């Protein structure tokens, strides 16, 4: 389906499976519109001139204080969010990374946007999940076993 949605253009987001043992980091979003407050990955918008890896490291640091390394590309989704007050279209790059320091604990650095960060097993996910994360989980996708691709292989940057 092609739609102009009032002249809006698609945006690119990078979201991160921060893998810690058998768990990943999820935070419950605070919904400004009084919606369902889904559990989502840390991540955000790709800024002009940024590589996927730089964006992943920056967003995880800004939102949780964690330092990550070994960032790998794993999958991508292309979603229209028409149910929101402002319709949006995202191409979302999903990456996987590990903690630079396994002793580091996440902090809730954007409490106006997130209720807090916790480690969750992929086999026992909290609900509701962010829409495209739920879809991925339903397909049998597993962020631990998904084939990872080094971002350098994928995209020489700049
Ligand atoms: N945070 C997050 N965003 C996701 C997920 N899946 C997904 O498609 N997105 C898309 C839709 C979001 O509106 C978009 C950007 O993430 P965000 O909403 O957290 O953006 P943000 O405020 O942290 O970004 P920024 O303006 O600080 O750069 O990424 C997910 O699991 N977590
Ligand atoms: Mg975010």
UniProtKB/TrEMBL annotation:
Protein's GO biological process: dGTP catabolic process
Signal peptide, first to last residue: none
Nudix hydrolase domain location: 9-142
Any one GO MF annotation of this record: 8-oxo-7,8-dihydrodeoxyguanosine triphosphate pyrophosphatase activity
Listed InterPro entries: Nudix_hydrolase, NUDIX_hydrolase-like_dom_sf, NUDIX_hydrolase_CS, NUDIX_hydrolase_dom
CDD domains, A to Z: NUDIX_MTH2_Nudt15
GO cellular component entries: cytosol
This protein's UniProt keywords: Hydrolase
One Pfam family linked to the record: NUDIX
PROSITE patterns from the UniProt entry: NUDIX, NUDIX_BOX
Membership in a protein family: Belongs to the Nudix hydrolase family.
Protein name in UniProt: Nudix hydrolase domain-containing protein
């Amino acid at each position: 389906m092609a739609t102009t949605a009032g002249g809006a253009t698609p945006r690119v987001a990078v979201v991160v499976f921060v893998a810690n043992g058998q768990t990943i980091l999820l935070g419950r979003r605070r919904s400004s519109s009084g919606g369902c407050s889904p559990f989502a990955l840390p991540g955000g918008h790709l800024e002009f001139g940024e590589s996927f890896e730089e964006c992943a490291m920056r967003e995880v640091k800004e939102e949780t204080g964690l330092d990550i390394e070994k960032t790998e590309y794993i999958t991508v989704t292309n979603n229209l969010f028409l149910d929101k007050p402002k319709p949006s279209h995202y191409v979302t790059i999903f990456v996987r990374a590990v903690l630079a320091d396994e002793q580091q604990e996440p902090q809730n650095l954007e409490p106006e946007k997130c209720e807090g960060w916790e480690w969750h097993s992929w086999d026992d996910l909290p609900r509701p999940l962010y829409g495209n994360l739920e879809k991925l989980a339903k397909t049998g996708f597993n962020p631990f076993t998904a084939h990872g691709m080094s971002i350098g292989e994928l995209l020489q940057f700049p």
